Amino acid sequence: MESVDFLVVGAGVSGLSFANWLAGEAAARGRAPELLVLEAEAEPGGYCRTVARSGFVWDYSGHFFHFRHADIEAWLRRRMPSADLRTVAKRSFIRYRGRDIDFPFQKNIHQLDKEDFIDCLYGLVFAAAGQGAGGPRSFKEMLARRLGPGICERFLFPYNEKLYACDLDELDPDAMGRFFPHADLADIVRNMKRPEDVSYNATFTYPRQGAFEYVRALLADLPAGALSCGEPLISLDLAAQVATTASRQIRYRRLVSSAPLPRLCRLAGLVHDAGAFRWNRVLVFNLGFDRKGPSGVHWIYFPDRALSFYRVGFYDNIHDGDRMSLYVEIGAAAGVELDIDRLRERVLAELSAERIVDGHRLIDWHSVTLDPAYVHITSRSLAETARLRATLEAAGVYSVGRYGGWTYCSIEDNLLETRALAARFAPLL
Ligand SMILES: Cc1cc2nc3c(=O)[nH]c(=O)nc-3n(C[C@H](O)[C@H](O)[C@H](O)COP(=O)(O)OP(=O)(O)OC[C@H]3O[C@@H](n4cnc5c(N)ncnc54)[C@H](O)[C@@H]3O)c2cc1C
């Protein structure tokens, strides 16, 4: 049997960044860590992968990077000296009844038709006035209480129902955490006179060669031979601290996993409340056309329930491409069969109806289904995640990342989490 000090499961941003931070901690002590990263897929990157085809560069879904911590961004950038990184001031809209309203909807209701505006404002004023004691029970109730029926029924309910593919009443009030653009009555009225975008990604960076450049940066300093792709973990003996793959058994001192938490529990035979873990899938179509389409826009949100997609993004407007290059995102419930060819035809017809495709010829396309994509954060999932992570940790197993932590986060959050974990392990090096 082989043995290793640190076994990492998953070579997405979380697994790879943990390996890097740990190597950095070890190097500071004049050591090299005994480390192995197992990745189920044939290539690293997880959801941060990029496909380059027919002159188009597509991610698994539009992945744009916003950093709140300058040191994290600098750490990454040092590892990618030759990448062509562009910093972009976001231009995003909501298409509502044929009009493009600035994002976020709730702060730009003055851009609506007069009747819609009055309805939204009326609902907002009385929602704000009517906030009673006690917190909201659910995400849906939080939205309704804060923003009122006008805004909720026009945008927040239909859009989020399309995205999450579930009843919003099932989600925790804080299901979107800091990613929800909160605004109160004063913010909204102020924005009518002095528009400002203070959303978490008002500016973002993006490499010309796609999101995978960030993964490449994380691969650059990985100790030689530390990564094994195409080798999934297939079972885990928590008591013996032994991991099994199709070809070997590996004894570890510490195991760090970014595999989805319920999957890890199944592999470890750990009793868990499987019903606490629910999620949506996101089907992404990347579409490349023969010529330019709309300009001056990076992505558009579509709350219209009649349309299959909830968001369409324009890669060509980020890096000044001369041919329209789109990503189209469709939310679906887990387990529902997706007919890719039929949906692609539907998407193309809907893009024409929305005047995004206007006689363009499709040159190439690609699709990928992210499963899980957005986890459904509920009080039950929060409690079960905390319990399971504590149980695993007591056995030397750390479940991290977007799906290991069963949460809503960005890659910067993944980097911060794994940096803190590597620092905790420093005494073991
Ligand atoms: C639609 C969408 C859009 C997003 N957009 C952005 C954005 O614009 N900006 C941003 O910062 N973040 C964005 N994110 C979030 C970002 O994708 C994640 O934070 C990040 O990619 C998560 O990395 P991870 O390593 O935690 O998980 P993953 O990328 O899921 O990596 C986990 C890895 O574990 C592997 N694995 C699973 N099971 C096993 C096993 N049994 N054995 C071995 N390996 C296994 C998987 O193959 C995978 O490679 C977006 C997410 C989604 C879903």
- Provide the residue-averaged pLDDT: 93
- SS class: alpha/beta
How far apart lie the N and C ends? 22 Å
The low-confidence parts are none
The radius of gyration computed from the alpha-carbon positions, rounded to a whole number of angstroms, is 23 Å
The fraction of residues assigned to DSSP E strands is 15-25%
Major beta sheet summary: 7 strands, mixed
Helix content: 25-40%
| Succession of helices and strands | EHEEEHEEEHHHEHEEEEHEEEEHEHEHH
Small-molecule binders here are: flavin-adenine dinucleotide
Indicate the overall shape. globular
SS summary, helix count = 11
Written overview of the protein:
With 429 residues, the chain is α/β, with parallel strands linked by helices. It is built from eleven helices and 18 strands. Helix 1 packs parallel to helix 6 and helix 3 packs across helix 4. The mean pLDDT is 93. Strands 1, 2, 9, 10, 11, 12 and 18 form a seven-stranded mixed sheet that branches. The structure holds flavin-adenine dinucleotide. Flavin-adenine dinucleotide binds next to helix 1, helix 10 and helix 11.
List the helices and strands and how they pair.
Elements: E1 2-9, H1 13-28, E2 35-38, E3 50-53, E4 56-59, H2 70-78, E5 85-89, E6 92-96, E7 99-102, H3 114-129, H4 139-164, H5 185-193, E8 203-207, H6 212-220, E9 227-228, E10 235-237, E11 242-244, E12 249-257, H7 261-268, E13 280-289, E14 299-301, E15 311-314, E16 325-333, H8 340-353, E17 362-370, H9 379-394, E18 397-399, H10 401-404, H11 411-425
Parallel strand pairs: 1-2, 1-12, 2-9, 6-14, 12-18
Antiparallel strand pairs: 3-4, 5-8, 6-7, 10-11, 11-12, 13-16, 13-17, 14-15, 15-16
Helix pairs in contact: 1-6, 1-11, 3-4
The structure holds flavin-adenine dinucleotide.
